[in-house]
Every structure is written in structure tokens, then in C-alpha cells.
Amino acid sequence: MLTNLIFYPVFLLQIILISWYVPAKIAKRYSIVLNKYPETEYPKLYPLGREYIDSKLRTFISISNMNLIIGGIVFGLVAYWDYHHEGKISEAIPAAYFFLQVLAIVYLELVVFRQLKVMRMSNKSSVKTADLSPRRVIDYIPQSLLVLCAVLYLGFLAAVFFRYGINFTDKVIINILAITLMNVFFFLVLDHFSKGKKLDPHQSKNDKNRQISVLARGLVLVSCLSSGFLILTLSTHVFGVSQILATINSAFFQISLLLFMKPSLDALDLSQTDFSVYKK
User: Who is most buried in 11, 96, 155, 181, counting CB within 10 A?
Assistant: First the structure.
């Protein structure tokens, strides 16, 4: 099918972006920190030692490289199938591969959480203080972004009513519940980070606020994109172009990950981070 041709460059970008570009950016960031702030001078930054981080970083890169190879194989198999068969490419293909791709990032996040847990357990000298003026979740998010998020969510609900009226199918109900619960989950996560204890016991107040602000913007943008994605998906059925759903899915996963990850990689400038708290 001619519409399948659009899928190939988009899916190829998904393979390269999530299995090579993003891991390379993460590895580069770690490399800068490890070289600029060595264990001998900043021991609190290495609760499990430098060798532990190096080992886990190598595993992260290996998983990403394996996903890159798998992506090439999937790309070839899809092209072979498309050449010998008529019909649209399944939207489940980019979705299944995306969840495989993010396993590397999830693995690295678990490594970080373990290090932070050891930090908290071994931290006995830091003075614990309470913030006399704790910030609310909405204080970390620009109002214009909150308005956009609300408009898109309401737009999604309006698109559902326009498409189905009051005759909701199980799939429609699941979609409404999924995006609603996602938004509630995002709010609870941000509320926990803004009011709960610091994951990193040595982190300065300014660094914590900047980190939460970046996380908040990322989650709200993902929420906006999710509502927009569902509106677009409903539109493909209305206008009879559901053949491009696989392409839309692939583009959605890429943009979502970039919106969530890129601020963390770029906005949290290492030069603005107070690493003196990790010294002896």
C-alpha cells in the first residue's frame, strides 16, 4: 500500500532516535559528571563506588545497542511482509518495539534509584530542615501550559462525543479512563516530589526545585500530546485514513519521549548544579 511508504522513514527515525541518539546523550552526560567530579573529591556522589556506575552504564549501552539491532531486524521483516502482502502495517509494531526500547532507560533509572536509596541510608550528617513555604504543584508549571493541557483534554472528550455520541464502547471507556488516570497519576507524582522528602539527601533546595520544574513540564507536555494523539486517532477513523495509524503511533512515541527526556538532558545544565554538596 502507498500509505505504508510513509511508515518507513518515521519508524527508522524511531529506531535511531530512541536506541542510539537518546542513549548517547545520556552516556555523554554521565561521562562529563564522572570525569569532572571524580570519586576521590566527591565521594558522596558515589555511594556504591565508581566501578558500579561504570558497570551499569556499560550494561545500559549494551541493551540500547541490542535494541538498535532488533530495530533493524524488525524494519527488514516489516518491509519484506509489506512487499509480499496487501494491507496496512499494524500499529502494534511501533508500540511493541517502543516498550522494548525504553527498557534500557527504565534499567538506568532503577540503578539511579538504588544509588539514591543507599545515599539516604548512609546519610547521617546532613541537617534535615523543613520548608516553611512549600510550593504547590501548579507553582512549577506555567499557567499557559496548564490551560493548553486542559483544553486538549476537553477537546479529546468532545471528539469522543462527536465520534460516538453516547454509545460508548468498551474501548472508548478504556481510553477515557486511561488518559484521566494518567493525568491523576502525573499530578500525584509531582505532588509527592514537591512535598515529600528529597530522594537525594545532599541535593540543594534550588537544584530540587529546578529538577521538579523540569519534570513537571515534561509530564504536562506528555499529557498534552496524549490528548492530541487520541484526537488525531479519532480523526483518522472519521476521515477514513486509519491506514496511517502505525505511522502516527511511531511519531507519537518519539515526540513523547523527547518531550519527557530532552528537558532533563538539556535544561538541567550541569554548570548550574551545586556539586559541592557531594564533597568530603
Answer: 11
The answer to whether residue 2 sits within a structural domain is no
Distances (CA, A) of 193 to 84, 209, 240, 266: 52, 9, 43, 20
* CA dist., res. 31 & res. 270, Å (int): 12
pLDDT in tens, 107-160: 988 998 888 888 878 776 555 555 545 567 777 788 888 899 999 999 988 888
Residue 265 belongs to domain spanning: 8-123+135-278
The grid coordinates of residue 226 equal 496524549
SS3 assignment, position 167: coil
Q: pTM higher than 0.85 for the full model?
A: no
Q: Give 145's contacts (C-beta < 8 A, 6+ positions apart).
A: 217, 220, 221, 224
Amino acid at 1: M
Question: What would the grid cell of residue 61 be?
Answer: 549501552
157, part of any domain? yes
